[in-house]
Amino acid sequence: MSLPVGDTAPGDIWRRLGNRVRARGPGAPDGYGDPQGALPLRRAICEYVRQSRSVICTPEQIVVTCGTQQGLYLAAQILLDAGDRAWVEDPAYPGVTALFTTALRDRQMVRVPVGDEGIDVDAGRMMAPDARAAFVTPSHQYPLGMPMSMAQRTALLGWAQAHNAWIVEDDYDSEMRYDGHPFPALQGQDPARVIYLGTFSKVLFPSLRLGYAIVPPALVGAFCGARILMDRHPPNADQYVLAQFMAEGHLARHLRRMRSLYAEKRRVVIDAVSRHIAAGLAELQPCDQGMHMVLWLRRGLDDRHIERLAQEAGVSVRALSPMYAAGHGRSGLILGLGGYGDRQVEQAVITLNQLLQTAQNLRR
């Protein structure tokens, strides 16, 4: 439900560019590509993040990835040695926590609580002052949605500088802000200490497995070397198509269209919840950015049970409590804004209210 909706997908333009680039351009079938990524795309990304996110970099600092998940894995593998500790937000994106519970079990994840201003740096200092890295979502905390305050950003950078630690900034959904101006990327405040991750899958289409890591110059070689061992290089043709898509201004126009459409989707969800969810059963977390919203459930309602019931009823929601450290979870549901029409959204909220009322009645 947090995926690009059908009427925003850039299908026709992408197909025309793809045919042109693949037929007689640099995207034609060829040998192995650059493991760092195609230079035209790195140049386009550099200009894009400089203008839109105040990121400070050169094309030589950009490593094209197959999405944010690969960027997270590369960062954790390169920045952390066996036995090292790393701060991870609590709650957090499951793709981050899964790294430390599966492939990188010899590195220790320290779950640092998130408050109204983002990650609690003071708590992190008490729990693991010697951590080697912090994995954070400053612009739009996943999954709760709030931006990290300037006070917490300053504190986080101060901790990293004092302890010679790294910050891994996942800047997902930063393009989707509906009110006011977004905070600039954390990377722009300390380019030598922040690894910045972005992706095109969420704003274009999920099957486009292209993202990017912007790393300090001293780490470029390590990222490229690890990348070669994984899959050698990103999909070659799609990189050149995307570079041309950006160079011709299509991405900027696409994002303006996306923001307008998702602002309306957000309004529809807020309106449906206010009209159809019974008072006292649940409430929406205020949020003015991103492609999902959080619906907090009344104390005592099991979000995992509600998720199962909703799936059986044909409603797609995601339980929030499993994204917390064990024993810390608060019950809530993630509601995506994309993929469904307005009438489908309203009917889904009506069905969800019925499930919540039934679950509440069974508790009495």
TrEMBL record:
Alphabetized GO MF terms: pyridoxal phosphate binding
InterPro entries found in the cross-reference section: Aminotransferase_I/II_large, HTH_trans_reg/aminotransferase, PyrdxlP-dep_Trfase, PyrdxlP-dep_Trfase_major
Domain Aminotransferase class I/classII large positions: 31-330
Alphabetical list of CDD domains matching this protein: AAT_like (cd00609)
Name this protein carries in UniProt: HTH-type transcriptional regulatory protein gabR
Lineage: Bacteria, Pseudomonadati, Pseudomonadota, Gammaproteobacteria, Enterobacterales
